[in-house]
Amino acid sequence: MNQKVTFKNLLSTSQLTHDDISLLINDANTYKKNAKQNQIKNSKILASLFFEPSTRTRFSFESAIIKLGGNYINLEQADTSSISKGESLEDMGRVMSDYSDIIVLRHPDIDSMKLFTKYTTVPVINAGNGSLEHPTQTLIDLMTIYEHHQRLSNLTIGFWGDLKYSRTVNSLVQSLSRYNDNSFHFIATPDFQISPTTQDILNKSNCPFSTIANLDSFLDQLDVLYVTRTQTERFSKTASTYLNPLTKKELTNISESCIILHPLPRVNEMSTDIDTLDQAHYFKQSQNGLFMRMALLNNLLQ
Ligand code: CP
To answer: Same structural domain for residues 78 and 210?
Structure first.
């Protein structure tokens, strides 16, 4: 395994090698066991720039840099930066490189990362660009899957909900397709099925998958059930058909060894009675976010 990650900016899961993922999971687990902290000089500054709302990603990054010994500056609201006066993302990236040592950016446009990093001189981490990618959520998802199954290959994974607009689904499917012998079931209404682009990627990787509208026929075969909310902020609500909310009753036949993941926030797609199942791992998943982001910041700031 390599001792350093192979990327400077983390903009897409396509940059993550198997060794990068193993290294980061290993480091994140070390932080989780409370074995190492305060590794970064207190002069190191994280710029936390969120042009979309966030609870987990923003606060876990800000908490992670403090736990490591550094500090942060942030954008509380998009309209408090000079972007609201018409400044370009290219110029903002250039300027913020002078004020910080690492930048975390969330933005609704899928092209934002490419524009922002045109002139940046410090590492930039994609914290979500529109419906395209959310690579740090994928690292957390992979860490949580590995924690339970001790492998990232030979898995059967079901994805349930809005698979079309979900950047976390898009990023995780692409990552898991690069491991051997993984197969996928995509459970969604036609309005929210996985994109043709992602289906092409799976076909090129020879990954078996099905697109279907209910869970029943293979629920007992799943190693992971990944649930996601409808991303109502990304489309017009008219004429869309949704799945009925997932309840504990529908999960009666779930395998004992399956884990249920959800990137959160959840809204009304999943009833809270599922929280009582041993298979519910989504709060462990959000807890892992802090440790994975500590691992990532420490690696990129060394
Ligand atoms: N999973 C996730 O990205 O959550 P937030 O939108 O709260 O950051």
So the answer is: no
